[in-house]
Specification:
Distance between the termini: 47 Å
Number of strands: 12
Strand order of the largest sheet: 2-3-7-8-9-10-11-12
Amino acid sequence: MMKKRTFLSLAALAYVVILGICGNCNVSAAENAQEITLPENGICAHRGNNAHFPENTVPAFLSAVELGAAQVELDVYYTKDKKMIVMHDDDVARTTTGKGLIREKTLAEIKSLGIRFQGKVVDGVRVPTFEEVVSVLPKNIWINIHVKDNKVDLILEIAAYLKKEGRLHQSFLLCNRNVAQEVRKTYPTLKICNPPGESTFSAYVDSTIALGFEFVQPNPKYAEMPKSEIQRLHDAGVKINYFGVKNAAHCRELLEMGVDFPLCDDVTACATEMSKK
């Protein structure tokens, strides 16, 4: 049997409790999203601070926020009973004590599963709903939402929830381009990250600008990202994420070359690196 791990320290538990009571009071007194300033660049916490906490869980996102992440990235799926949960894979096997596809399990069944991290089962942590994650995130950082199954009804529900909670200003979705364009007919202010599909970075830049999307997220398949193309994106008002950060030094290198938000697994190491002069 897999050994259980007492995961949260008393300090971390206190932090969770405080956030649960306070909600978003740690963000800003401003209720109007127009009065909230979002970061121009900085660390994106890839599935939260997942090198030190179970990925895509509330503790991972809270740690990233505490370390000053400018953006968090998360993944959303529908359960069998059409509830939105945060998990990277479409199967629960890798990160939980269960087996099987998310779409074949109810929210209650998924909530009953233990979370696995570094070979052990973590006490007191469960797969979170999308709403649970958003509720603990401040309103002055970016929320990078990946939807891989590209269901229009799921993306419409995500957009509706973001609008209801006053979160559209800070959120953007990475999903199928055609689905994104369809959803923007209902939610025209919904920000979209163009998924990388073109064979060259220049062509990727062209499609992003032509589609009027607000973010890109290149990866290592684009071995060349010329400064002129990075500038062309910025001139068009497009922010640049980057998936494939190797380490903290690479994170710094990407920021210095003009990438706005490198996706980091070890937010602790990257934040330490970026604090150096």
